[in-house]
Amino acid sequence: MENFPLKALNFHGYLPGTVGKITEAHALYYYEHWGFDRSFETQVGGELSEFMNDFQEQRDGLWVATIGDSFAGSIAMDGREAPAKGVRLRWFLVLPEFQGRGIGKALMEQALEFSLNRGYTEIYLWTFKGLDVARSIYERQGFRLCLEQQVNQWGQHLTEQMFMMNMESS
Description:
7 strands, globular, alpha+beta, 33% strand, Aminopeptidase
């Protein structure tokens, strides 16, 4: 599949309905592809709501990709724990109908540029084994797997993974 013409791709931050769209996209995708139960949707919705309630423009970032009026994907940088742990990459998802067109790469570039401009040197993210396309995006950008552990959550037994990136050495 060809890369989507980036001129047709729009980015925005929060707009009314953004929390619901990101939560719904994650809930549907992970239910359909991984069998996650309602605890996943409620966790995403709750944590995303907390993030937005405490959002500080100089510390945090949120980008939503749209094609016309259609939600295509999202990514966020959560800086609430940055001094101690680094900035956390969160809610990175491109809907299946838009995957393979360069949107994930464009979202990631937005997030990494934000992090660099804010002076963040450590970035981390949590994911799980099996998301191979996302992992390849992370690794191309300089993220490295640093932890794996077995967990029972969202109605599944998963291998949870933590990736980290040091902006100074990448």
